Amino acid sequence: FQARLSGVAPSLPGHRWVNGTSKRFLQLVANKPLCAKIIGNKGSSLELELVDTTSDESDVYINERLVLEQYAICQEKPQLTSQISTPAQSVESEYMHKQNSGEHFDKSENHLQDMESYKNDIELIQEK
């Protein structure tokens, strides 16, 4: 599936990204278990808010961090136009079930080492 960060846009005229934006984005997200909140959809692309919850001090909201560091500018967040059924919702549903039953997800940094293991995790959850 395709996805984009919600509520942010390129900061340069002509909808161009600042040099180094991709590199900084990868520094913020690479090899970290992230939480993704589906904010809406634009065509066939999901609009997401990404959050790094690995720090003991505070969560890092990737969308906001890019704005604070002037790699992006704020734009109005989209309204959810339809109910979207996605693997992320299955994960959230599974999380809520485990939370209510007293079970816990593995939040260690080893849980999601790369995108391939993430896909495998999603497939395992969908099989249940």
UniProtKB/TrEMBL annotation:
It comes from the Eukaryota. Residues 82-92 have a biased composition (Polar residues). Residues 94-119 have a biased composition (Basic and acidic residues). InterPro entries: SNase_OB-fold_sf. Gene3D superfamilies: 2.40.50.90. Residues 82-119 are annotated as: Disordered. This is Uncharacterized protein. It comes from Meganyctiphanes norvegica (Northern krill).
